[in-house]
């Protein structure tokens, strides 16, 4: 039986990143992957969705070309070509990961792993069962779409995020069950492709975990693009009547939607396949860990979607690095600066605490919001829908959180992340020089306005 310093189960952004970091720091590493390298993020998540969102953005630009004085007389698109391009992007990135594993001399076991005890893993490969041993184990098995038991759902054809990115025809009508990040990103793709999209959300607002101003702003703009949003609405059942009938209830009133396609996107549940022989402590459905990613079993770590929390690819990667740090004898410091991005039209990007979280944590906070409507670059680009908001501790101005809404704000949040990570203040942000004309100047304006010395606001 082969022996390693570290064995990792799951080759998503949590597992493969941990494997490379550990190998670079001198550990012998085995990586066990039952599906495709890159996990959900690369194969069924971040990358497929962002590739198709780019296609949607190009289509939107063509449709809006008239407002820039450009006449496009005719255009067409092929969903088949779009999916082909998405597949090429995924393949290119997957072979990049394969190359990195080879380069770093990581032993890849292709097959589902079962963790037998704190040191032994058996892998079901094409060539039969293989066993390996390791001094430390990282569980990085990720998650899959959660499908709730709604009466009649099993009688209709529905998509989850696992299947929608391989769709062969553009539906005329799509009902999206769940107005979270995944549901709304997919709503934007299909709205741009010409599908009539209706989103049903049980909470009082879409993306309920995000800043209320951001989620309300987004809902308003999605509705202006023709996406219908039902909030405070519960789906009570489905009927198959040749077409799909979606039955729902809003404030005691019964409603029905008729559609040719349904996407269920109400959250994700952890992949626990191969973990049933393990006696780690659980936190509800997720594996319980401390801030060094240790489970209750010595030598076993868990990271990524399997432990719940943010359920983001970069969080999984960061947690993988924290686990490797700890295996190498370092103690990690808790970092609150986790950026969160929603790639809708407009985008939302945020970092640190929301205003409500900061107040709950005992801070006296002051926040300031600056609209993009007065920003030169945003006006020149015709992309003025959005705002930037700084949430800071009132007395010393420490930046606790930043929320951005607008085109391309996901590319700008890292600047705010640096401030939250380094415990920077509004005064320090205001003393920086921002390039002109950029949309990021709104961050400077927001800091200046927070200090009550704004130039344009
Ligand atoms: P995963 O990526 O799920 O990888 C786990 C891997 O483990 C899988 O490859 C699986 O095959 C393997 N595995 C499971 N059990 C076993 C076993 N017993 N043996 C061997 N292998 C096993 N996050 C972002 O940060 N940005 C985004 O834009 C974003 N967009 C998303 C869009 C969609 C539609 C979805 C669904 C998710 C998106 N996410 C995004 C979330 C992101 O994909 C996940 O947070 C991330 O993939 C979690 O990484 P992970 O390594 O924990 O698990």
From TrEMBL:
Keyword Ribosomal protein appears in the UniProt entry: no
Other notes: The active site is a redox-active disulfide bond.
PANTHER family in the record: DIHYDROLIPOYL DEHYDROGENASE, DISULFIDE OXIDOREDUCTASE
Free-text cofactor note: Binds 1 FAD per subunit.
UniProt-listed Pfam families: Pyr_redox_2, Pyr_redox_dim
Domain of life per record: Bacteria
One Gene Ontology CC term in the entry: cytoplasm
Name used for this protein in its record: Dihydrolipoyl dehydrogenase
Disulphide linkage map: 41-46
Residues the entry annotates as binding NAD(+): 178-185, 201, 267, 305
Sample GO molecular function, one term: dihydrolipoyl dehydrogenase (NADH) activity
Reaction catalyzed: N(6)-[(R)-dihydrolipoyl]-L-lysyl-[protein] + NAD(+) = N(6)-[(R)-lipoyl]-L-lysyl-[protein] + NADH + H(+)
Entry keyword annotation includes Electron transport: no
